[in-house]
Each structure stands twice: as structure tokens, then as C-alpha cells.
Amino acid sequence: MAHGSGSCADFVARAFADPLREAGYGLVTFEDRTGDISVVTARLAALVDEHRAQLVGGVSLGAHAAVHVAASRPGLAGVLLVMPAWTGPPGTVAALSSLAADELEVAGLPSVLERLRSTPDDAPDAWVAAELASAWPSYQQVELVQALLATSRSAGPSLRDLAAVDVPAGIVALESDAFHPLAVAREWAGLVPTAALTVVPPPVTDRAALGRAAVNAWRRATGQGSNR
Q1: Could you tell me which of 220, 215, 172 has the C-alpha nearest to residue 23?
Q2: Phi-psi region of 196 (alpha: psi -120 to 50; beta: other; left: phi over 0)
Q3: What's CA 170's distance to the chain center, in Å?
Q4: Local structure of 59: helix, strand or coil
Q5: Distance between CA atoms of 39 and 32, rounded to whole angstroms?
Q6: Residue 212: phi, psi to the nearest 5?
Q7: Which of 46, 29, 92, 90 has its CA nearest to residue 64?
Q8: Contacts made by residues 41-44, CB under 8 angstroms, sequence distance 24+
Q9: Model confidence over 106-139: pLDDT tens digits?
């Protein structure tokens, strides 16, 4: 499993380790500080080959990378695509990463972290702010800015890439998330030949809810679970 840009392997572990174990799979993840889709894809592909993995997946930019890996490995049991951000050339959603990089450069990482930590607990995006406030202190400011800028320039999977995914796909979206629009997840679910979509309502107080939603969607895509 690959995490998203500016995120960390610890988030993936908290969200996916238990749901995957319950489904009979172990979790292998890694840290990426580049935010570069080509780098993330190469590292994810190498881990899939090294561990002879049956499932591959990712969150946000990591989901973009997982599409490329799954499309080139039709023998996999499935792919978990959580909170995809955009399809094709980077556009308005990708530009949000650039805006975040600009804020970091102008205000500085300590100031941005203070703002994130002051997000009200009842705000719909409070869990996102909490995750960023947890992950970003492990980055150097210049490193984080470069990663966000690299992400803003990274193309998402093309229509052809998505259609080439020849394994069952469990896709997860949030009801409301500007960085990961529900419309994108719905588009992916319509383009991947065998896919099921689960929409998770906010707030995501239990991070493992994302992992369970992904596993359950994948099971539905394989015909093992309920279609409801």
C-alpha cells in the first residue's frame, strides 16, 4: 500500500493493517518523500514483485500509482483504490497541492502546523487536519514543499490506464473532500472493468474505516460481498 503525498506510512498502517489482517492479508508499506508519481509507482511495483503480493493499493497519489501497477499485473487478486484525486493531466484539484506548498513557503511549517492543530474537532475535515499535523513534522519544510509541488505536476491515470486494470478493484471515496472529489471515484468505478465503489461519510474518526471500506468494496467487485 502506498500513502498519499505529504502523508506517511504510519497512516497507512493505522488505516489498513487490521482490515487486511482480518481479510487474510499482511500489510507492506513504505515512506515516500518525493510526491512524484513515477517514483511512487516504481517503489510500489518493486514491493509487489518482492513480496509476491496478491493485493496492491494506495491512498490519493498512492491510488494513482496502484492503478499503474495493477494494470501491468493481471495476475493480482485485486487492487484497493482509496480517495483518488484526479484523472489524466493535473488540473484544478492538483493545483490545491501547489497552493498548500505556497502557504508553507510564505507562512512556514510551524505556523501551518499551528493552524492545522487549531481545527475544531467538529469540523468535517478535522481528521484530515489531524493527520497532516501528525505527518508533516517528520518532513523538512523544503522537502514537503518539493513533494507537494511534484504532486501538483503529476498526471493521474488516463482513461486507458483505468480500462486496462484487469483485476477486481475496491474504490473508496469520501462524501465531501475537495482534494479527493467523489466525482473522480465515480468516474474510476465506471472505467475500471470490474469495480465496486464505497462512499464513506465524514467524519472519519476511525481510520480503519477506510481500510474496511476498501476491502469490502473489493469483495463486492469479486462477487464475494453484498452489492448494497
Answers
A1: 215
A2: beta
A3: 12
A4: strand
A5: 8
A6: -65, -40
A7: 90
A8: 41/65, 41/68, 41/69, 43/2, 44/2, 44/69
A9: 999 999 999 999 999 888 889 999 999 999 999 9
